[in-house]
Amino acid sequence: MATDDLMTRALEALGDDGPLSVEAIHRLADLADLADLPETMTIAEVAGLLDISPHTLRYYERTGLVEVARDGSGHRVYDAGAVRRLVFLTRMRLSGMPMRDLRHYISLVDAGEHTVPERLDVLVEHRDILRRRIRELTLSLTAVEYKIATYGGSTGPDVQDR
Predict the structure, then answer these.
(1) Which end of the chain has fewer CB atoms at under 10 Å, N or C?
(2) Cα–Cα distance between 119 and 123 in angstroms, integer?
């Protein structure tokens, strides 16, 4: 399943009624859809699931972001833990987290529980960046909606006509 499909299903599961909640994110983080996957997967299967290239998967492995076992023939074998980490990595990359920050965060995760406060700092900083980007995108959307209304088109439900 492609990343876009995963995101679409996740957004549908959350619904349109009200703000996102921590509980909703916990439900998504459980990766119920991944429970139906095979115990192990090939690089091609994981690439197809996440809609990223095998080259990207090899890069993530080479840079230490994910550890992948090898079978007797030397082929990569992705277990559920590796796939879960890759789902997280792809979400963070899609959100604009720089590779430098992602490598730092993953190194903290791999270092153990004593790094939780520093991990929190990394995520809070990224959240603040995302919030600013969302505000900037909202402003851009408002400008587009204004122009649409100017040309006689209808604006979205979240735009108030004045």
Answers:
(1) C
(2) 6
CA distance 100 to 116: 18
Q: Which one-letter DSSP state was computed for residue 156?
A: P
Longest CA–CA span in the chain (Å) reads 68
Single pTM value for the model: 0.73
Cβ atoms 106, 65 nearer than 8 A: yes
For the stretch 78-99, pLDDT in tens is 999 999 999 999 999 989 999 9
Q: Which residue has 């916990």 as its token pair?
A: 26
DSSP 124: H
**Beta-carbon contacts of residue 103 (< 8 Å; ≥ 6 apart):** 63, 64, 65
Element of type H or E holding 57? helix 54-62
Q: Which token pair is 160? A: 């108030």
Question: How many whole angstroms separate alpha carbon 67 and alpha carbon 151?
Answer: 54
